[in-house]
Amino acid sequence: MKCAALSALLVFGCTLYGAEKQERDTENAMLAAYSNLQYSEARRLAAKSDRPEFKLISALCDVFDRRTQNLKRGMPELERLSKSQELPERYRSMAKLAYARANHTLALRERVYKDAGKVNPVPIYEEIIKTYPESLESISAVVYRAQYFMEERNFQEAIQFTENFINSYKGKNRRLLCPLHLMLKDFYILCFRDYKNAMRHAKIARELRPANPRMAQRLDFQIARIYDVYLKDDVNAEKEYLSFIEKHPDTSEATPAKRYLKELRERKAKK
User: Fold this and answer.
1) How far apart are CA 181 and CA 199, in angstroms?
2) How far apart are CA 58 and CA 34, in angstroms?
């Protein structure tokens, strides 16, 4: 009798473990689908559970999937979940960021959503940065907060805000800061034509290695061009062109890089 009871308990335990593993696998697949913008698949997987994190992904699909967008359903649910203590900690910052960003972008589309613009996303961005300072969500919140400054034409504030965050960042994974350095590079060029500071951030971003290979390639080319055209640094420009041609010989920028290198050497020979 004891053996039968023990066997039944073991079977129950194995079944429970199997169900939990299956749900974890579903959750991971759901997150992967959402990250890859495969909204239909993410929505399908989200429907398999009533857990808050699954409801969050479903709400995110309602809000951000333009093909089947349902803001009347998605926005109230996203607001509720962004304030919910039911969500696991790692999802809470994600929900807050998504809710703030949705309100930020929908403020420009009042005809699409009648309540657009009623929620100020700035305090939410700042709360995320303060509460989760080392997270990926805080990096995104800094980007969006800086964009808000730019929309208000507060260019210097956008730059100073981002520089301050980078200088105070205590996280171990500094690669997360790469998008901020890339953004500052563009801000310094577009707002102030400050190519010296733009180069400073471009080189740091390259050291941190952009996750997108195409972006990394374009950054290499841009560094060479800034040295050549704007900083008039022939030595470093030649070095960067040579490095680019060696690293990216079959890319669309390889041909102009060779031409620019030839022109640079011709100019040097005339000096």
Assistant:
1) 10
2) 10
